[in-house]
Amino acid sequence: MFAPLSIPSPEWSYFDLGPFRIHAYALCILAGIVAATIMTSMRLTKRGAEPGIVLDIILWAVPLGIIGARIYHVLTHPGDYFYPGADLLRTLYIWEGGNAIFGALLGGAVGAFIGCRMTGIRFWTFADALAPGMLLAQAMGRLGNWFNHELYGLPTTLPWGLEISSDNPAFPVGLPEGTLFHPTFLYEILWNVLGVAVILFLERKITLRWGKAFAVYLIWYGVGRSFFEAIRVDPSEMFLGVRTNIWAAWVAIAVGVVIFIVQSRRHTGVEISPYVPGREWSAADADIESDNADFDNDEDGNGAADVQKSAAAATSTSGQLP
């Protein structure tokens, strides 16, 4: 018998829509990606980037991030996938759970770097714009672990303990049915949402540009993850008696500290443009392109005059910062 205020695990993790099986885990991840994309796009546009340019970057970052997340998970849980008679195709079944955020960071960083090089956006500008959106996406993605009945913590007597059926493959041997567990998915959701607020607050108080907002993200997430990982009961590879994901969290903290210190020393001025030199974009450029399109379709014969007026307006404002 579970406690009155305990958190029940969902009775379903997927539903069928015609011939398709829709997994809640996948929906949570997709919802997080959409939310992060919208938030990042708004922040980049506010800093002077072309509206919608974030889509050109995430077309690289998201696929490589998902691939990196899966590869990292499989490599850090080899016993789940590589054993006599194992179906190696299961290494591709991301809907069963198992997408490591640290792998997503590595793969996504490579994809973002490629996307930024192609669009002319500064990599660190994109990383800063993404920082709170990443935490928001991770918070939403953690709901998928709840639907999958996975990645819960140690047994607890707290009233908000998570209900896990004793027939769950990861249910600790020897514990009685009705045992409650720490809802680490919920802890991480709350921590990540709080992190979004912290980054947005700090940006109002101090200058978090040139990668420093992303550094705060790494430090914040690394601190929280190192604790949540320590109370989880699911099996994981160990190194020197410490779970590999805790080592990864410590690395994230260290990298965040290094980025913050180095970038604070290297860049003491204002970030003038989100673009690398020579790749700048401005609204005036878009107006001229729009006018050129109008000129091509002009029917009243005044297209050339309209384009000349737009060019003159753009020239008069070219010396202003975006």
From TrEMBL:
Keyword hit for Secreted: no
PANTHER family referenced in this protein's UniProt entry, alphabetically: PHOSPHATIDYLGLYCEROL--PROLIPOPROTEIN DIACYLGLYCERYL TRANSFERASE, PROLIPOPROTEIN DIACYLGLYCERYL TRANSFERASE
Q: What is its EC number?
A: 2.5.1.145
Q: What is the lineage of its organism?
A: Bacteria, Bacillati, Actinomycetota, Actinomycetes, Micrococcales
Q: Which UniProt keywords apply?
A: Cell membrane, Lipoprotein, Membrane, Transferase, Transmembrane, Transmembrane helix
Question: Does the keyword Cell membrane feature in the UniProt annotation?
Answer: yes
Q: Which family does it belong to?
A: Belongs to the Lgt family.
Bias-annotated ranges (Acidic residues): 290-301
The gene designation is lgt
The protein in question is named Phosphatidylglycerol--prolipoprotein diacylglyceryl transferase
What single Pfam family name could you report for this chain, choosing any that match? LGT
The UniProt entry's GO CC annotations, sorted and at most eight, read:
plasma membrane
Q: How does the UniProt record describe the way this protein sits in the membrane?
A: Multi-pass membrane protein
